[in-house]
Amino acid sequence: MRRFLLARGAQALAVIALVATLAFTLVHLAPGDPFAASLDDPTNTAALHAQQMHRWGYDQPLPVQYLKWLGNLARGEFGWSHSRNRRVADVLLETVPRTFLLMGAALVAGVLAGLALGTWQAARRGTPAERASGTLATAVLSVPEFLVALAALALPAARWHWFPVSGIADPAMHDSMSAIGRAWDVTRHLVLPAGTLALLTAAGVSRYHRSAMLAMLPEEFVRTARAKGAGEYTAVVRHALRNALGPLITIVGLLLPTLFGGAVFVETIFSWPGVGRMMVEAVGGNDYPLVLAGVLVGSVLVVLGSALADVLSALADPRLRIEA
Amino acid sequence: MKFAAAVLVLFVVVAVAAPAIAPHDPRATPQSETQKNLPPSGAHPFGTDQYSRDVLSRVIYGARVSLGVAVVAVMLALTLGAAIGAVAGYAGGWTDIICMRVVDAMLSVPRVLLLLVLVASTGPLTVGGIIVLLGCTGWPGTSRLVRGEVRLLKERDYVLASRATGTPEWRVFVLHVLPGLVPQLLVTGTLALATVIPLEAGLSFLGLGVQPPTASWGNIISDAAGRPGDTWWVVLFPGLAIVCTVLAVNTIGERLRERIDPRGRSRT
Amino acid sequence: MRFHSVRRGACVMLGAAALLAGCGGGDGSGGGTVIIGTGQDPKTLFPPASDNIQARVVTELIFERLADRGGSLNTLGDAGFVPRLAQRWDWSADSLRVTFHIDPRARWQDGRAVSAEDVRFGFAVFTDTIVGARTGADLRAVVDSISVGDSLTCTVWFRQRSPERFDVLVTSLTPLPAHLLRAVRRDSLALSGFARNPVGNGPFKLVNWEQQVRLELAPSPSYAGARPALDRVIWTFAPDASTLVKQFMAGESDFLENLSVDDAAAAARQPNLRVIRLGSFGYNFLQFNLRDGASDRPHPLFGSRTLRRALTMALDRQLLVRSVFDSLGRVGLGPFVRAQWSADTTIAQIAFDRQQAARLLDSLGWHTGADGIRTRDGQPLAFTLIVPTSSNPRQSFAVLIQEQLRIAGVKVDIERLDGNTLVDRIQKHAFEAAMGGLAATPAPSGVKQTWTGAAARDGGLNYGRYENAAFDAQVDSAISAGAQASAKSHYRAAYQIIVDDAPAIWLYEPPTLDGASARLQLGTLRPDAWWMGIPSWSIAPGKRLPRDAAPAKTP
Asked: Both C492 and C520 in a single domain?
């Protein structure tokens, strides 16, 4: 088992190192630079610009910059964000937990809803209601995240005022609230962005789960359960559900990249101050160190997710340990 | 399935015949003073946008761009994926290891993030550029699939036999291995379409995809996203076009998969 | 209903906070909270490094300068300037020196008295090239040195008697707390903790800044002047323009800058909102590159003054402006804005005249071809216009110009570029024509940095490289003229020359439309710096919201 873990860990590190190199090369090919004059403020003179480029080492050959960057990275130093005038690490410490909160809430809500729906569909398979719900799930999966987010912003927030339009907390009242009040405040702000992502997660999970449940249904123990006189619903829920939960780990692992990609749009539209919005703003501002950090965070999340899924599967299935 | 195919055919016909169907020039801004932001009416069934352009015509021409970009990008991704997967599968050894690690690396970055970085490094793109970008980020899944199949098939008798006769490897691949992969590639490609269409729309929505005045479904929406509450028609109609197309493609893809995958056949 | 309990709790907590703080800064019950929506964070709160508008807004409320331009928008001499950190100032007989007497009650927010040394230190920092302050070059050009008399008097030594020297001095220099910053290395100043947690001397102090989320200011208890009426000013940040607008329309923010014409119309329909129109401090134009790319050869088309004039004539600028801005925009008159004191609306313009434009083009040998496009020696009359995708009005203008010039037989290809790429291209002179825009200040002398021959070389901002010695001479005379009347006549002459030469088609002054909640009492907003009025903003009685009662968090 230890060898498996080491091998999986080494593989994950290699992947991340490769991502870092690819991203570094791409980002530094970009036209413009962190200190280019902006459109409405062209006052940055050539001399000042050259001075800033030199100050931050952007005038050095690319391989030198790359090695320096790698060296800093190895020491856990992500560099300096020019657009925010802070250490990149500090920016990440703020933004990453917010994205985790958003994605975590979406995952929990989406997976639970998806499981419930999938189970119900499996138990009621063939009925018109089940078919309609299946079509609906496919339809939901066909709507791009940004459209769902735009609709959620336009109607429940802007038109009906059920939820705040944007942000993570009430800008004026949050600090003076009680602990419960603050939790409620964040929840209110979380509902629409997390709900957007959860809707898509639920649709995806329900489809996987329905098939997994159906694959279990004809098996011996379910029949036994039925024979014992348990109602079909109980049989399905009790037995098939327990056995169908295994692949869920893998599915959630697969969902992470999609969810993270969705977070880019959702965070931008709802002004949720997480990594996705940070990336869009950093790309716009040519803030190289921040862009690179964002890519790394995204890939570490995905790699960790899939490595964790592998390890959990390996724990459950001894055959896999030897193979790797 | 039939309905989905009909919907898809309809959109393809609309895209191909856009100049004949569209009631107006999608770029024309004839009465920019008086004709802007008009709600749907007889003259403009989908209304007009903030520059007084006819939204119906823009959605029709947008079908061309959005579908065209998606189809070509997916074909590019499949070709790249098949080629890289075949090379990795046949060559084995270091080539295989390196190819598969690159695949791992690319799959480990959420595709939107990858595209964001790529667009940042290239600047605003032409339609061709977007196709290349979407194609070049879409191949890893296919290459993994092809590599797996190649490694299974290359030990099969008929492949070994034809190799023994001195037929070059690539011919063996093209003549014997590839045909066996066509159904799987078809499914992969169809389902890839269903991810590429929203992706292109999303990029255009962020202002990083197809640049106006060329209409794509995504940038029609982003033009109006400022005020979907007021000019909902500029968002709704291209949005519906995206959803219908993706839904149709998804349905077709799922059915195709069920036909190929024996487990799926027993499902319904 | 839910708010009731929160509010009551809040009042109790407020009382406790006031007792604990024991400050004399008002009891907080009367002021209220204003929330301002904006797109971007300030990059920094270190005044010399501030380079985006948001940084200016916040630092100018936290830091006070020696004097303020005031509502008159005059930039000549010291007429109309209002004492701020300095109580008064005296000029030397030769008017090359001015001595400032600092308000003895002025305090830094850590309690230290503001001293003359802080002014000298600020000057040293601003003019140090290592620091790279944007206003450093202007300051160096005008001021030779600053000497300290006693702790409350300092004397500024000017290099020459340029009429705008006082304006440049007080708008470019922010005194800085020497006792806090002297020990910090100059090249690290902008990166130090001070840039995120500044200690200022102005009417407001920073309470809290969470990047991407919010920035909160509260009245500074150590401020010697009148205490601002509000208890809190909070900025919230949203990257998406449409989200900002929705936030504002839903009442989640009280003030939103720079509404689009359509959004302004929608806001005006809502009874709880109003729209304020300010004088514009920007002007936009179609800029020709008079040289062939980055080379020194004249551009094959735009090297010709007659051709440039013909293209100007072919455009109905009134119609263009009405199409994009309805009745709210104004046609550009030249390289200035109407709100500057030098503005002259009587400059003879190149009037819209399609026939005359056609005659001029014919006379140059450009004759209409079969497809309606003019050609000469087989070459079509065509050029590429670059436009930033980030600017909606500029894109609209480009599309409409394309159509109007097509009627005149000129083919325009529009190339859309993102903001960074566009700036990169025009800085390298790699363009034929560009939809340009410049932000102006009340000081008309800025024209020297953007349109004169000197600015056409060595990385200057005259990207189209228009050069006319007569224009340069008039600008120089205007800048060195002491009296406003004489300066005005020189500016007038300069503007007439450049308008006649048509190095650009002056298109529009974009309307500045700010949205405000009807519950705000704003007074008059200054067109060059609306935020300078925030200290006197207040909430209308009877229009208070729960958030007005929430206590300011003690930093």
From this structure: no
In a domain, C385, yes or no: yes
Instruction: Check CB contact under 8 Å for B32 and C241.
Output: no
Q: Locate B243 and state its tokens.
A: 């959803």
Nearest CB to A39: which of C191, C249, C390?
Answer: C390
Chain C residues whose beta carbon lies within 8 Å of the beta carbon of residue B225: 242
**CATH number, position C357:** 3.10.105.10
Q: Lowest-confidence range among B32-46, C184-198, C320-334? A: B32-46
Relative to beta strand C82-83, strand C67-68 is: antiparallel
Chain-chain contact of B51 with C396 (C-beta, under 8 angstroms): yes
| Residue in A with minimal Cα distance to C46 | A85
Terminal CA-CA length for chain A: 10
State the sign of the Cα–Cα–Cα–Cα dihedral A108, A109, A111, A115: positive
Decide: residue A168, CB within 10 A, 0-12 exposed, 13-18 middle, 19+ buried: buried
Contact A302 B108 (CB under 8 A): yes
Question: Is the separation of the CB atoms in C315 and C401 below 8 Å?
Answer: yes
Question: What are C15-23's contacts with CB under 8 Å, separation 24+?
Answer: C17/C551, C17/C552, C17/C554, C20/C554, C21/C554, C23/C221
**Hey, is the C-beta of B243 within 8 angstroms of any chain A C-beta?**
yes
In this prediction, residue C492 carries a pLDDT of 95
Dist. CA A26–CA B123, nearest whole Å: 12
| Angle separating helix axes B111-122 and A288-316, nearest 10 degrees | 160
Give the 3-state secondary structure of residue C102: strand
CA–CA min distance C270, chain B (Å): 13
Domain assignment present for C198: no
d(CA A270, CA C239): 9
Question: What is the count of residue pairs from A and C with beta carbons less than 8 Å apart?
Answer: 153
In a domain, C428, yes or no: yes
Q: How far apart are CA C15 and CA C11, in angstroms?
A: 6
Quick: pLDDT tens for A19-32. Answer: 888 888 888 876 66
ipTM above 0.90, yes or no: no
Is residue A233 over pLDDT 70?
no
Burial (Cβ within 10 Å: 0-12, 13-18, ≥19) of residue C294: exposed
* Of B32, B211, B226, Cβ closest to residue C323: B32
pLDDT band at A224 (very low <50, low <70, confident <90, very high): low
* β-strand partners of A86: A81
Pairwise CA distance, residues B25 & C529, whole Å: 43
CB contact under 8 A, C396 and B32: yes
Q: Which residues contact residue C432 at a Cβ distance below 8 angstroms, ignoring those fewer than 6 apart?
A: C288, C289, C299, C301, C302, C383, C384, C385
Whether omega before B213 lies within 30 degrees of 0, making that bond cis, reads: yes
The domain that contains C154 carries what CATH number?
3.90.76.10
DSSP of B235-266: HHHHHHHHHHHHHHHHHHHHHHHHHH-HHHHT
**Residue C221 sits in the same domain as residue C298:** no
Residue C309 domain flag: yes
Closest CA to B61 of B226, B202, B220, B234: B220
